[in-house]
Write a structure and sequence with these properties.
Length: 379
């Protein structure tokens, strides 16, 4: 059996999405910036997609800008906000995705901002009191905190963070890549200036995403070029990707309740099996359903002689997952997320991430193989 449990990295394309994309690949080949009939036909498809995404997120189409993915969207929100609003201070965390973390590091190195890192507990939850202390006495502040961590799955209360940002006049950007298509986002209620999505995280195509820019926080361009995306992003649009993104998000919202119930069931079952069959097993991040992204489970395996070989052994047994350990005194370049929550560097962390296509028999197979690989450590 081959098992794909790395859906937090990317998901398989939904066949319905592929069918929606095909006409744009084969028949509708005009440049959407052209004014002739071929171009207008394609332009119409982009605007239909924009309206669909806006409708699903309960916002207006003029706030949705298509990008090459979540990384570009995060970079755009951070860099353009600094330029547009004279941001002097960014509050973030040590466990953000590198699209945010490295961008903040570069802005600091360029002398454009200073950065503060909010305290986190051992499960990766934001210390809201500390966050308030970092924001309240610092005008021209931007908060950049993700909705759900991509490695450990811990959810942040972005509604509460948005309220706090609004109270102190801070700009709020949230990397919502891992939760887009898995939770409903109501942008009329959420007090966020920027959120992002990447189609390949919810069974859409790779290489396309979007940035939501609140109409009250307009920003300039990150990529220079033509006047595409209402003059917000230069470059000919990835038309079939954009259409695929909108279709994938539509399907995700249509199937969301069923998807969540199915995947949470698999995750909960895997937790219980591992607890029963692997002595000393633990979990990185919060695993309570109300506080955890249901598609992600980060397992902390007890120290053993084949620790470094666990991921490799899973791979040769047909199981695709991802993993790492916390950095130990600069001796390795392990997971910055596990380091950020002060996980034990001697324990191997493996991220198993599920999708609507995952099956119970796959969970059973993976647990059995883990037990087999770890023997005699588990007996």
């Amino acid at each position: 059996m081959k098992v794909y449990f790395d859906n937090a990295a990317t998901t398989p394309l939904d066949p319905e999405v592929f069918e929606a994309m095909k006409p744009l690949m084969l028949d509708m080949y005009g440049n959407p910036s052209s004014t002739h009939a071929h171009g207008r036909e394609v332009r119409t498809q982009i605007e239909h997609a924009r309206r669909k995404v806006a409708e699903l997120l309960n916002t207006i189409p003029s706030e949705i800008f298509f990008t090459s993915g979540g990384t570009e969207a995060d970079n755009t929100a951070l860099r353009c906000s600094v330029d547009e609003y004279g941001i002097e201070h960014i509050v973030t965390s040590e466990i953000e995705h590198k699209a945010v973390g490295q961008t903040v590091d570069r802005l600091v190195a360029e002398g454009k901002v200073r950065a503060s890192f909010v305290n986190l507990d051992a499960q990766g939850h934001v210390d809201m009191a500390h966050l308030e202390s970092l924001v309240k006495d610092n005008p021209k502040t931007m908060i950049s905190l993700m909705h759900a961590n991509n490695e450990i799955g811990t959810l942040n209360n972005i509604e509460a963070i948005g309220e706090l940002a609004a109270e102190y006049g801070a700009i709020f950007h949230s990397d919502t890549v891992q939760t887009m298509g898995h939770y409903a986002h109501d942008l009329k209620k959420l007090k966020a200036d920027f959120i992002v999505g990447a189609a390949h995280k919810f069974h859409g195509p790779k290489g396309v995403g979007f940035l939501r820019v609140n109409k009250n926080r307009p920003i300039g361009r990150f990529i220079e070029g033509g006047g595409q995306e209402r003059n917000h992003r230069g470059g000919t649009e990835n038309v079939y990707g954009i259409v695929g993104l909108a279709k994938a998000l539509e399907i995700a919202y249509r199937e969301m309740d069923e998807h969540q119930s199915h995947v949470q069931g698999l995750k909960s079952n895997m937790i219980e099996q591992l607890k029963a069959k692997v002595p000393g097993v633990d979990f990185n991040g919060d695993i309570k359903p109300e506080n955890s992204l249901y598609t992600v489970l980060n397992v902390s395996f007890p120290e053993h002689e084949d620790n470094d070989m666990l991921l490799f052994n899973l791979d040769i047994n047909g199981i695709s997952a991802s993993g790492g350990s916390a950095c130990s005194s600069g001796a390795n370049t392990g997971s910055h997320v596990l380091t950020g929550i002060k996980a034990d560097p001697n324990r191997q962390g493996i991220r198993f991430s599920f999708s609507k296509y995952s099956k119970q028999e796959e969970v059973d197979f993976v647990v059995a193989k883990v037990v087999e690989i770890l023997e005699p450590a588990v007996v």
